[in-house]
Amino acid sequence: MRQGPFVLTFLVGAILIAIFFIPHYRAQQVQTQLLDWANIVYAFALALGSISLLILHATKVRAGGSQAKYSLVTVAALSVITIAGVVQGVEEGTLVNRVYNAVNAPLASTMFALLAFFIASAAFRAFRARNTEATLLLATALVMMFGRVSIGEFVWSGFPPLTEWLLDVPNLAAKRGVAIGVGLGAVATALKIILGIDRSYMGKA
Amino acid sequence: MDEALDVRWFDPSRLNLLIGLTLFILFLLINLRRALRADGGLYIRTLPALQALDEAIGRATEMGRPVLYLPGLGDMSEVGTLAAVTISSRVARRVADMGCGLLVPCYDPVVAVLIDSATREAYTQAGRIDSYRSGTVQYVAAAQFAYVAAVTGLMLRDRPAANVYMGSWYAESLFLAETGNETGAIQIAGCDQVTQLPFFVCSCDYTLLGEELYAASAYLGREPVQLATIAAQDWAKILAAAVVVAAVIATFFGFTDIDKLLKTS
């Protein structure tokens, strides 16, 4: 029984790799079927996760304490939206749709807007010229900033082409180097799991 | 209708990929044999980010604060997430051994279920299943900024002593890493997204770059067969570099059709 998940992982992994090279419509139908099954598994996992979340926060509400109010909001929001979604659906004009557009979307936009301040604080720390590498980073960042704003061209006309060169040559070379490594690493990781070499995802050492 | 159906049993435009995959499996088999025969195991260079992991968990134990492990925003179809799940098991084992708390808020429900199962098993293997608390691994929200709000709130309230970010990350990387930095936690990140790496490098104490994320589980486990996969990866990289150089030379001498041999559909 303990070998079951590994056998299943190997079979599904091997079949999907084979299907990648087989364009036959029957093989593609098998792939579509497997992907549909993955969606069903996801739906069950989502239900399981939501129930677990509800139980955790309900327990916190019952226990009381200074953070219970946050848990109460979570329980209330999760319950109301789930019930409204099941009863009314999620189409235009329904409660879920209105809450999504009037609450969730503005909150997400607000959070995203905060990114500018986080970038500023991270850049301030990164660009302090503590050593040679940091100084090089600072100099490159200054060139990039001057090359990307209109005033930069007035200061020195060479800024925009220098910026382009930085992006197209050293930056792209580094990115491609990382991309090749990531690609090969991804293949190695997938093979490790399909062949059962790495079973730590099941808690096995 | 039937005429439109593809009845080929092999896609010739993917022959180069099949050859590449076959070579990779061959490298893997050769290195597995080498690893099993080598007395001291295969050499693997030191990764400071993973060396610091024990230090970070030890610090959390001394401070009586939890370790926060974040497996990224990817789902199980992303290899970065697979790596994050395998690393979570190693981290959970060390946390269980040292006896400090662990918090794993997840974005994807399937990832949450898998990490929960792996973490329970790791605690069991450490003989500390009694220390495992329900809610250690928790599905939070499958919405990017709702997840960010929940995790940053957790960071500010519970003040974890160590934050470990592994997996696939997007715009939320800097939010989380900067908030973690403000709380004074030791931060270790691993990311396979080139666009997010600079953010982690700026805000974290240690960062695993690109493919190092995939090597982390093998590095922490130190099993010979796991290290063999890293050696096979290195051989494949040497081959890839040789092919790139050969392609450049061939193009220089006018054999421009070489790109057709390397392209795939």
Description:
The complex is a heterodimer of chains A (205) and B (265). Chain A has helices at residues 4-21, 25-63, 68-88, 95-113, 115-126, 132-148, 150-155, 159-194. Chain A is mainly α. Chain A folds into two domains: 4-114, no CATH class; 129-194, no CATH class. In chain A, helix 2 packs across helix 3 (68-88) and helix 6 packs across helix 8. The model of chain A has no long low-confidence stretch (mean pLDDT 90). By secondary structure, chain B is of the alpha/beta class. Helices cover 58% and strands 11% of the residues of chain B. At the A-B interface, helix 1, helix 2, helix 4, helix 5 and helix 8 of A face helix 1, helix 3, helix 4, helix 5 and helix 6 of B.
Structural class estimated from helices and strands of chain B: alpha/beta
In round numbers, the mean pLDDT of chain B is: 91
The quaternary state of the protein chains shown equals heterodimer
Mean pLDDT of chain A: 90
Number of helices of chain A: 8
Structural class of chain A: mainly alpha
Largest interface: A-B, 60 and 86 residues
Q: Mind summarizing the main beta sheet of chain A?
A: none
Cα distance spanning the termini of chain B: 24 Å
Tell me the β content of chain B: 5-15%
How is the biggest beta sheet of chain B arranged? 6 strands, parallel
- Give the domain tally of chain A: 2
Helix content of chain B: 55-70%
CATH T-level topology of the largest domain in chain B: Rossmann fold
Order of helices and strands of chain A: HHHHHHHH
Q: Counting H and I runs of at least 4 residues, what is the number of helices of chain B?
A: 10
- Low-pLDDT windows of residues of chain A: none
How large a portion of the residues of chain A is in β-strands, by DSSP E? under 5%
Radius of gyration of chain B: 21 Å
Extended strand count of chain B: 6
- The top level CATH class name of the largest domain in chain B: Alpha Beta
